[in-house]
Specification:
CATH architecture of the largest domain: Roll
CATH topology of the largest domain: Ubiquitin-like (UB roll)
Number of strands: 7
Structural class: alpha+beta
Shape: elongated
Strand content: 35-45%
Number of domains: 2
Order of helices and strands: EEEHEEHEE
Oligomer: single chain
Number of helices: 2
Helix content: 10-25%
């Protein structure tokens, strides 16, 4: 169990609510019962950072390969969706937005 870096007491593991954009997301973490300091699970904190970048929008460059256009998927998107070479992706649209989903 982790110790609080503020007051030195043992921290209790619990689900921590994090507000991100207009959503509240629960992640694993620990809270100090004395001072209220919160630590997030490092892997889940990294995914929250990636999700926050995606909410803000990530630019992708369009290239060409023969007669087709190629969209390069940025590393943050690749890591967040856990995309690897050979995965199947689905593009959909609502008429103004392009949505990319991993199959």
């Amino acid at each position: 169990m982790d110790k609080c870096h503020v007051c030195g007491l043992e921290m209790k593991k619990e689900k921590v609510k994090v507000k991100l954009q207009d959503q509240t997301i629960e992640v694993d973490g620990a809270r100090c019962g004395k001072c209220g300091e919160v630590l997030l699970d490092p892997e889940q904190a990294q995914r929250l950072l990636q999700l926050n970048k995606l909410y803000a929008g990530i630019e992708a460059k369009v290239g060409s390969l023969g007669k087709s256009l190629v969209v390069r998927i940025p590393c943050d998107v690749k890591q967040f969706l856990k995309i690897t070479k050979g995965d199947r992706l689905i593009f959909t649209t609502d008429g103004r937005r392009l949505v990319l989903e991993k199959r």
